[in-house]
Specification:
By secondary structure, this protein is α/β, with parallel strands linked by helices. The chain has helices at about 15-30, 35-45, 50-60, 65-75, 95-105, 120-130, 170-185, 185-195, 205-220; strands at about 5-10, 30-35, 85-90, 115-120, 130-135, 140, 160-165, 195-200. The structure holds adenosine monophosphate.
Length: about 220
């Protein structure tokens, strides 16, 4: 279990949760815990949880709380989380938020800050449907907004294999946005009620959002 801080990134698909979580890892030595990444790894490994989750993820719907919580608890038992975590894509339902509160309370901890990345839905469809990553190091790119400097080679590691997520199509993103508004957006009020909510306007540049998050982390971990 982590000792501190515990940050949550909330926001619809395309808001920049994964990108910013990776930057917070670099800037503050925190560990990114992405339930989407953990689920994709389970699907790739063909585990029982992965087999159950696959079709649900491809349809843009939410995987059951039981599966997600089991996968997350397993990951949180690893020693590297002791330096503090950024939860990216978790919690996504009221049940997950309640389970997290209990898990942290049992360890004498609580959520340090829940950051809501505030964006426009329509822009998210273009953002998500053009994105891809380096298959070697995971660096993110976009057909329209961020191509590698040298075509076909990753700027960071030189890798030449790139991949796109199966659920990053315009149609599936609409489903994911619906799931976000129906099941996840209500958590903003949950964390406001705990006085840990931070709202960040996230339609600007990656660097500007990074700076705002750095301010928040500096303030809450002081
Ligand atoms: P993400 O990588 O966070 O965009 O997640 C990709 C997909 O994985 C989502 O559309 C869901 O199907 C599933 N998923 C990831 N995290 C969760 C979660 N906390 N609860 C339920 N489903 C999740």
């Amino acid at each position: 279990m982590p000792v501190a801080p515990v940050l949550i990134l909330l926001g619809p698909p395309g808001a920049g949760k994964g990108t910013q979580a990776r930057m917070l890892e670099e800037d503050f030595g925190l560990v990114q815990l992405s339930t989407g990444d953990l689920l994709r790894a389970a699907v790739a490994a063909g585990t029982e949880a992965g087999r159950k989750a696959k079709a649900v993820m491809e349809a843009g719907q939410l995987v059951s709380d039981d599966i997600v919580l089991a996968i997350l608890k397993d990951r949180m038992a690893a020693p590297d989380v002791a330096s503090g975590i950024i939860l990216d894509g978790f919690p996504r339902t009221a049940g997950q938020a309640a389970a997290l509160d209990t898990l942290l309370a049992d360890a004498g901890q609580r959520v340090t800050a829940a950051v809501s990345l505030e964006v426009d839905d329509e822009a998210m469809i273009a953002r998500v449907s053009g994105r891809y990553t380096c298959g070697t190091c995971g660096e993110g790119y976009h057909d329209q907004f961020k191509q590698p400097a040298k075509a076909g080679a990753c700027d960071k590691c030189g890798g030449t294999a790139f991949k796109r997520r199966a659920d990053d199509t315009a149609e599936t993103v609409r489903e994911r946005l619906n799931a976000y508004h129906a099941q996840t957006a209500p958590l903003i009020a949950h964390y406001d009620g705990q006085s840990v909510l931070e709202r960040v306007p996230a339609m600007g540049s990656i660097a500007s959002v990074r700076a705002m998050l750095a301010d928040i982390v500096g303030r809450v971990s002081a």
